[in-house]
Amino acid sequence: MKVAKFGGSSVASGEKFKQVAKIVTSDPERRIVVVSAPGKRFSEDTKMTDLLIALAAKVQLGEDYMNEFGQIVDRYREIVTELEMSTDILSDIMANLQSIIDIHKHDSFRLLDCIKASGEDNNAKLMAAYFNHLGHEAYYVNPKEAGIFVTDEPGHARVLPHSYQEIEKLKERTGILVVPGFFGYSENGNMVTFSRGGSDITGSILAAGVKAALYENFTDVDSIYSVDPRIVKNPKEVKEVTYREMRELSYGGFSVFHDEALEPVYKLGIPVCVKNTNNPSAPGTFIVPKRKYSDTPVVGIAGDTGFCNIHVSKYLLNRELGFGRRLLQILEDEGISYEHTPSGIDNISVIMREHQLTPEKEERVFSRIQTELEVDELFIERDLALIMVVGEGMNSSVGIAAKATEALARADVNLEMINQGSSEVSMMFGVKSEVVPKAVEALYNAYFNNVYSISYTNS
Amino acid sequence: MKVAKFGGSSVASGEKFKQVAKIVTSDPERRIVVVSAPGKRFSEDTKMTDLLIALAAKVQLGEDYMNEFGQIVDRYREIVTELEMSTDILSDIMANLQSIIDIHKHDSFRLLDCIKASGEDNNAKLMAAYFNHLGHEAYYVNPKEAGIFVTDEPGHARVLPHSYQEIEKLKERTGILVVPGFFGYSENGNMVTFSRGGSDITGSILAAGVKAALYENFTDVDSIYSVDPRIVKNPKEVKEVTYREMRELSYGGFSVFHDEALEPVYKLGIPVCVKNTNNPSAPGTFIVPKRKYSDTPVVGIAGDTGFCNIHVSKYLLNRELGFGRRLLQILEDEGISYEHTPSGIDNISVIMREHQLTPEKEERVFSRIQTELEVDELFIERDLALIMVVGEGMNSSVGIAAKATEALARADVNLEMINQGSSEVSMMFGVKSEVVPKAVEALYNAYFNNVYSISYTNS
Q: By C-alpha distance, which of B437, B417, B436 is closest to B428?
């Protein structure tokens, strides 16, 4: 049994629905289909999810929302018309939307969450109806019916462990089961969404629940690339990547696959294949528990911006038991999570995602560090980026660091930070945001094109 | 006014006392002299401090201690005889030792501390008497009289801030003032020692108190070397080093100067000169607030062993607010201080000095990490060393990291960890202990002999 998830661009139009149906019905093992809400059909197009957010905003403001409501229904209508299906289903969709508005209009947080989830939900109904229209046995399966139970944290739901036994029962059902992505149900019956991009999570949970042979993740690229194609033209395709490598690449800014989504399949060792809906015969990228590292020790290079660094120093700091712990406690009290804490003897840097540090939080954090820790020096460095060189094969390989630092020096990239050694899967470099493209390109050329090589000369 | 401190080997014999007197009297600015206890005269010799520890041990056990007592007095007697001084002073020394024993024999902790401190104390009395014997105006000044007040933590005393006003009054006195190093007095009148090597601390406190023009630290080497001479033969002498660089080098294993000792003079910007008692005309090494970095961006390479690394990993660890803080709390609860915490996305390494981790503490720490943090993976890596490349001039210098990693790769040194970026003064590499000599040598050759150089070839 395979679980196939189709992303927003794969279900953006009637034409795409036809392609999905062709893919699903071409392999009888493809029994569970997870769909996103309709995505963009062209680069200036608006995603269904954004139309829904606009609708929720109008409802919250108590303003007339018929225009936004109409746009949403029109978007589904176009798909139905393109597929030459009966428009009866549109009344169901309209009734569903209206009932969400009526129930939640006084709870703007819940309203937004349920309206967003309806994008996937109604699209799954449409997809199931299209399979039926083509004469296939297929069913829309609501996440509650499927057994996807989650914590009641709208926008951050986490699957509850007992879901998996429930989901396993889907194996007994016949036909194609179409499940909307992006949300589950809390114990007290609320629709609750995962974080954005969470349809990947739904697919992964279902694949784990039914112990699928393969979790196929259909998107709009032939494969995952070893580097961002906007930085390096025609980069090398990644044929195989391990879960751990994928997680590091996602963290480093690879957006093709939602990183939290790997957890359920990772635990069971279920392989994932990222494929192109528009070119399903291309082999795609396999995400697997283990791969052969010999030919490609490094699998990819990622770079992500939006970090900052709070730097503190204090003479004889390293003699103070509890200094680091108290520093982290101050951040925790403000709900700020940090990424890394490289340290010297008398100084610590705390690297974090910059957006977390609102001006108010920054002021409170700085004032507490100053008064409670009595530091000699305290400053913030903004506009930092982290660049990750990822590959399980580089573990304890002499010279890997030399290759990277040499390539970066050659490209005249100044290193704010090097972090290597804790993770066996990656090496991390902190640089100023503006040098990310040249740094990433230099590293790509070093590892994938062998452009620079060290030669040793005695002088 | 200069403060001149003479280390153990500089006051180990009558011959050395003569040398010290010659140095002190050759410059009328040398007004405050700090002495250690007599050190080794030859490599198999026993230091006075170790004789005193042996005496304290016998007293504590309630055993006959006349043999140990006799050895100590004999050691002073040899000096007195060599200097052709009256032996009257030996009675004072014997009475002093006996009174410490009588007062503290039932408090073994305090006994050890006071007996150890007597090594410096009696040697200072001897030195002052020798100056008088030569016809110079000189006075033994007890630390209480000098105004060195400290916290009541035997073996770890810290100077109390009001000491400095007291010490400043020494400027009004005439003659040469000889002060014993290594200890001060608590508010309730106890002799309390600094950590071992603490005579450097006494000198620094006195230099800060009298706002000396220079703090001279006389030892048995011509200068501080850029690398351990046991690893690299005839290494480059360091002419100038900043306080911050010196602290990093001390941390990295340079033992020539007690690192805590720099704090008092650092705060006032008083320069320190490390000189050789046996070759006082050599310029020595100046420790200064700032230096010119242009010709020597890297000032020294140090390597220290005895570290270990506790490694934890957990899937999606970086989403858990407070994980790092709770990990550090567990260590703090056991009184374990850590050095560095390099981290990946889903893992953290905590690097600490290995001796802290007794088998019992290790067991408790591991069990708490496992149960409270529910980690996926937990292990300890032993026999680690930290190698530091130190130099203020390497701050934001492109290619410094490349030079180091290239040299290490060339020497076939596998890097367990790289830590660069928090400190502007150093770059740190974690390696297995057994490769320290070859790693240090490779780095020395790269920075000081330019043995390896990077050349770039397109292939």
A: B417
